[in-house]
Write a structure and sequence with these properties.
By secondary structure, the chain is of the alpha+beta class. 22% of the residues lie in helices and 37% in strands. It has three helices and eight strands. It has helices at 9-16, 67-83, 98-106; strands at 23-31, 36-46, 53-60, 88-94, 110-113, 120-126, 138-141, 145-151. Strands 5-6-4-3-2-1-8-7 form an eight-stranded mixed sheet, covered by helices on one side. Strand 1 and strand 2 form a beta hairpin. The longest helix has 17 residues, at 67-83. The two termini are 29 Å apart.
């Protein structure tokens, strides 16, 4: 594993070309009486190597990295992926990310080695084709804030 100094044009297009079909993104944002800010993103990109699979991402601002506030965007993403015909969500995470591993297990993901790098663990969730797409919901959170999920793009 290495660091990346800058994104190539191809990589930048891949991350920003969100068509809500092959590349889906959901934003989580917090609002209070005077402001609104993005506090997280959950998304997936359909795999070109494994039909029916998608690689998922979840990024949450440090102050919002509590399992309760992260679980809803991940559940919404799983539901939306299943409704779109995705059969499996897959991601790799660092083995030391205890909060992510706990969240993944609570959300029904299996955790195993990724087979390439011992520092990484593979997260996999088999999705039910019967899942229905749920309407967007507001999620009440502490500190007079609300967390909302909406489609990005």
């Amino acid at each position: 594993m290495s660091t990346l100094g800058e994104l190539s044009e191809r990589m930048a297009r891949r991350f920003t070309d969100i068509d809500q079909v092959r590349h889906v993104a959901l934003l989580a944002y917090a609002t209070n009486a005077v402001s609104q800010s993005v506090v997280g993103e959950a998304g997936y990109i359909l795999s070109t190597d494994d039909p029916g699979s998608a690689k998922f991402t979840l990024a949450v601002a440090p102050d919002w990295q509590r399992i309760r506030s992260c679980a809803r965007p991940l559940a919404r993403l799983s539901s939306q992926a299943a409704a779109a015909g995705v059969r499996r969500l897959v991601a790799d995470t660092l083995a030391g990310k205890a909060a992510m591993l706990e969240l993944a297990r609570a959300a029904g993901f299996t955790v195993s080695g990724n087979g390439v790098d011992r520092r990484l663990l593979r997260l996999v969730k088999e999705l039910s084709p019967k899942a229905q797409r749920r309407p967007l919901q507001r999620f009440a959170l502490p500190a007079q804030a609300e967390l909302h999920c909406s489609q990005g793009g």
